[in-house]
Specification:
This protein has 322 residues and is mainly alpha-helical. It has a single domain, classed as Glycosyltransferase. 70% of the residues lie in helices and 0% in strands. The chain is built from 14 helices and no strands. Helix 2 packs antiparallel against helix 3 and helix 3 packs across helix 4.
Length: 322
């Protein structure tokens, strides 16, 4: 009797680095409900429960991927040199930075344990990714919003980094992230408008367009604690991309499920947090309505994505060879 194909027999080999997007998504949801408890009067227990769930999820995904590395190191090295999957390795360090944000207010020691190694790892991955782009010819079809993950993830460093590092170090990461956001956005817009459309599995990554200005706004406020013209520009850009994605909702209705669906979650949560922060500072009732709306929409999207993830896990359609 012929042996079953490895793609069916051993899913560990095909456990994708993109699984860290689930941690990013759940981290965003956790921070959103933590801030909703602080600024909108939501029950604080929701944020506490989500904190535990997210931490456990990070541990499970990390344990599985480390196991994969020891058993299939050549496969991991191949992923690390893949022009598209390389970008998702930064989801590891971003997950650590977001866990630092989750623990910062109540458990600063735990936050530091995530922030310092997460920052060092992201520093390395940023330089490695850019040098990879320079040393290897990139196909235009390889460009997609996931390119924002390793570069613009730098703006996350200051969000939890206040008190852990000097203003100069935090500004270094903030400046790098904002600069490359502008550059990469121009490249991506050129590709989308004048060349081939994104493949279906990468359509959810369009939501990542919301994240750089939304997280940039949060980082800027964390460092300077002021809502000035630049902060307003970042917030309004995040709002514009949110409205643009909402206007294009039909593009996402018939997309086949991929793990990349988790790219929906983190940007929506970042916009919800930005809206709540802006309301907390300005007390504008329109922003209060926007805050409740973003919390509701993000929660519904998370529920749908979690349901679809478990559904496709039961069908054996997760961790298969592409």
């Amino acid at each position: 009797m012929q042996e079953a194909p490895i793609s069916e027999k051993n899913r560990l080999k095909f456990f994708p680095i993109m699984m860290y997007a689930t941690v990013m998504g759940m981290s965003g949801l956790t921070i959103m409900y933590q801030k909703a408890g602080l600024w909108l009067g939501f029950p604080t227990v929701i944020g506490m429960v989500l904190m535990v769930i997210t931490t456990i999820l990070f541990g499970i995904v990390s344990l599985v991927y480390i196991t994969k590395y020891f058993q299939y190191s050549s496969v991991v090295k191949k992923e690390f040199s893949h022009p598209i999957r390389l970008n998702f390795f930064a989801a590891v360090s971003i997950s650590m930075l977001m866990l630092a944000i989750i623990y910062k207010e109540h458990y600063p020691i735990i936050a530091a344990a995530f922030w310092y190694p997460g920052t060092v790892l992201h520093f390395y991955l940023t330089l490695h990714t850019i040098s990879f782009w320079i040393n290897n010819n990139q196909e235009l079809d390889h460009s997609n919003p996931a390119w924002f993950i390793p570069i613009v993830g730098n703006v996350l460093v200051p969000v939890a980094g206040v008190g852990f590092a000097s203003q100069g170090i935090l500004m270094y990461f903030f400046t790098s992230g904002i600069f490359f956001w502008i550059i990469l956005f121009a490249i991506l817009l050129n590709r989308i408008i004048f060349h081939h459309q994104l493949a279906g599995k990468f359509m959810p990554t369009m939501f990542i367009l919301i994240a750089p200005p939304a997280v940039g706004f949060l980082a800027y406020f964390k460092m300077f604690e002021v809502i000035d013209t630049f902060a307003m520009m970042l917030f309004n850009l995040a709002l514009f991309f949110t409205l643009l994605i909402a206007f294009m909702y039909k593009n996402f209705l018939k997309i086949k499920f991929f793990i990349s669906w988790w790219a929906f979650v983190f940007p929506l949560a970042a916009m919800a947090i930005s809206s709540m922060l802006m309301y907390h500072q300005t007390h504008d009732l329109t922003l209060l309505v926007l805050s409740y709306g973003m919390v509701f929409i993000t929660t519904v999207v998370v529920a749908i994505v979690i349901y679809q993830t478990f559904l496709h896990m039961q069908k054996g359609e997760i961790c298969i060879q592409e």
